[in-house]
Amino acid sequence: MVYTRLIIALGALTVLTGCADKANMELVPTAYHHLPGWEHDSHAEVLPALHHTCKAIAKKPDSTKMLTRANGDGQVADWKPVCHRLKQVNPKHHHEVKHFIETHLTPYQIITEGKDTGTFTGYFVPQLRGSRKRHGRYQTPLYRMPPAGVNRKIPRSQIVAGAFKGKGMEILYVDDPIGAFFMEIQGTGRIRLENGQELRLNVAGQNGFPYVGIGKVLVDRGDLKLEEASLQGIRKWLLTHPGQAQAIMNMNPSYIFFREDPWTGDVVGSHNVPLTPARSMAVDRSYISLGTPLWLSAPHPLNGPPLRRLMVAQDTGGAIKGPIRGDFYWGVGEHAGEHAGMMKSKGELFVLLPK
Questions:
Q1: Which of 58, 181, 212, 272 is most buried (CB neighbours < 10 A)?
Q2: Which phi and psi angles does 130 have, rounded to 5°?
Q3: Largest pairwise CA distance in the chain
């Protein structure tokens, strides 16, 4: 599933659309000792992501196209022997995983238009508290798709004012209208009900109005500086200006309708496999095939140790355009959101292809 996610781009919230021209990518072979931080990664942590990907690869016909060669060609059949041998690797030994990768895969640095760096953002799955009934602090409804005969092309301002009230479209009510707004942009979220039950809401549809990033609105108005327009900066402004918050959110007329799914503990990406926090990345599949192992070298969004690690291409997003462009999956909840909301890093990206 492709998520409509929150992307921080130039300090503003942007809609996820677009594609890319494959002709601009060059893959330059390199050696593992040239990968920044290669010797210091906990290599075995990527195994769950690789095993999930290999299960997906095993289901595909051998002739299915998949990046395996520096000229951009290749097919799934080139990956299946690697996946077969991967089953024998001990998941407890980082050095064994490292040796396996070095033995069976060749690293290539991605170059585009003479540049070896690109932009890396982050995404996460929000977590909110909810109730099946409207009461107390649970006052913000989340709606399912309007049934046939009910007009869905209504702007956000009218929907939050009650345009669908009494039409039986409420899935549940949450206690955080700002969190609900960001969950729409993220496109998915985990809800914990009063009885302890957990469920997941995923995008079911949209009201037909164009997306407007409120980060850009706040910057254009002079309420935020460009460097302050992160998820945290925007949320903080909304919380400290409660009298203006809903009017600002209403400046984005787009509204997302949800469907309810049971919470299984897994978040599934475009590769149709569970995502692994801090090891799964969304990429532009015009350049990089889903399932491709990657090496990322980029600064940490909160000034922690650099993000130099093995990852796997397992998701997509319309704003993820270009060869050296990625969206780092941080996981579920507030802690993951803090990292995702601050991430807009320049870094290098390498693909690891079968020898």
A1: 181
A2: -145, 170
A3: 63
Mean pLDDT by 10 residues, the chain (355 residues): 37 31 80 97 96 96 93 92 94 92 97 95 91 96 94 96 94 95 86 92 91 93 89 91 96 94 80 94 95 97 94 88 95 87 93 96
Q: What DSSP character marks residue 220? A: H
Does CATH place domain 12-122+268-354 in 3.40.228.10? no
Look at residue 318 in the predicted model and tell me its pLDDT: 67
Task: Measure CA 341 to chain center.
Answer: 11
CATH number of 125-262: 2.40.240.50, 3.40.50.1110, 3.40.1190.20, 3.40.50.800?
2.40.240.50
Structure tokens at 161: 């004012």
Pairing mode, strands 307-315 and 280-282: parallel
Q: Where are the domains of the chain?
A: 12-122+268-354, 125-262
The reply to whether domains 12-122+268-354 and 125-262 share a CATH topology is no
Pull the structure tokens for residue 113. 């238009």
pLDDT value at position 11? 30
* Alpha-helical runs (H) found in the chain: 47-58, 80-86, 94-104, 156-160, 177-186, 214-221, 231-240, 242-250, 334-342
Is residue 61 exposed (0-12), middle (13-18) or buried (19+ Cβ within 10 Å)?
A: exposed
179, two tokens: 């969190």
Place of tokens 């060869």: 323
* One-letter amino acid of 265: G
Which residues on neighbouring strands pair with residue 259, listed in sequence order?
202
Token pair of 223 as six digits:
């309420």
Cα separation, 12 vs 15, in Å, equals 10
